[in-house]
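Dear colleague,

Following up on Tuesday's group meeting, I ran the structure prediction for the two-component complex that the binding team flagged. I've pasted the input sequences exactly as they went in, so you can double-check that nothing got truncated or mislabelled along the way. The structure tokens for the whole assembly follow below. Feel free to forward this to whoever is handling the docking comparison.

Inputs:
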Amino acid sequence: MPARSPLCPVCGESFPGGGPDHRCTRCLVRPPHFARARACALYRSDQRNPLVEALHRFKYGRDITLAPLLGAYLDEHCPLPVDHDLLLPVPLDLERLRWRGFNQAAMLARSVAARRRRPFDAMLLRRQRATPPQVGLGESERRRNMAGAFAVRDRSAVRNRTILLVDDVMTTGATVEECAKTLHRAGARRVDVLVLARAADV
Amino acid sequence: MADRGAWESRYAERGEDAAQPPSRFLVEQLDRVPHGRALDVACGAGRHALYLARRGWQVDCIDFSYAALTRLLTAARNDHLAIHPLAADLEQYPLPRERYALVVNVRYLQRSLLPALKSAMHPGGMLLFETFIRDQQQLGHPKNPAFLLERGELAAACADLDIVHYDEGRFETESGAAFLARMLARRR
């Protein structure tokens, strides 16, 4: 199912019931470094979801022929205007990259960038250390866990740019928040986040 | 190259269950292994990957069959576990080096893989190996000698490791009687 209003205009969290969009408590208390985060689809981890199954086949089944299809889905169901100066994927750490052989977020971002004719760079933002799994951590522990995980290779390529950060899935948003923070410190004007699927039950 | 289609349909039809109990040998030996990151090769539907992850291990696991991994993924996602599965052909896919505290190889035999399993452990890491020996032919499958160890073969092939536990013979396992070689060995 797609994310529907009412939702948080910042992080995109969808609220049950009716009424107007409004900021969620988390974004009120601690405004994130990204302007808007949106997902093409919401999923529940205890339910089957064809999009998530296709994503798993891509990612864990290493079926990279699915990248253009998932990229097309991301592009066509994108709830944000894509007018950014630059599209960047959330980077993988080197060990994970070697394990899987490719960065699924980079393949998705490249596909969207090509369709929208926007500049794309898979190397500009890098993960400078592996982070322990976020599983079982609370919100502030997740933030601490991610702190300093990313770095910008070339600040001049980021300064004053509007950036669309792309990832395959978003659970708590701690990863994209740390990326956005890193990009802002490097001088980015605005960072938006686009993900294919977002967990609705975290 | 093994026949991928045959394994995919085997899993799709019969389906080893992710809820299948883990190897008794693994369960017995696990507290002798220093905690850390584990690699499970030929993980199937993930009975060992899930057992380890539920005990706080970070697990990388590989199987040829994506159909098998989907069962593991469903179970892992519902429990929010730190498991990184990968569908890959172990005869081709390069394994990480010097990374794991534990490498698990249960009921799988690819003789050519042994050097890669050893180098995947960091020094002090442990290899837990449990696979059928030739005598298993009396009881049932596998019957192909390519998938059966000769007696003493595993110990000889792991002479460069410190063997912590080794036995061979007929065992009552979590899934009935089987002729197995079982080893826990530490990388120097």
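The domain at 45-199 of chain A is CATH 3.40.50.2020 (Rossmann fold).

Cheers,
M.
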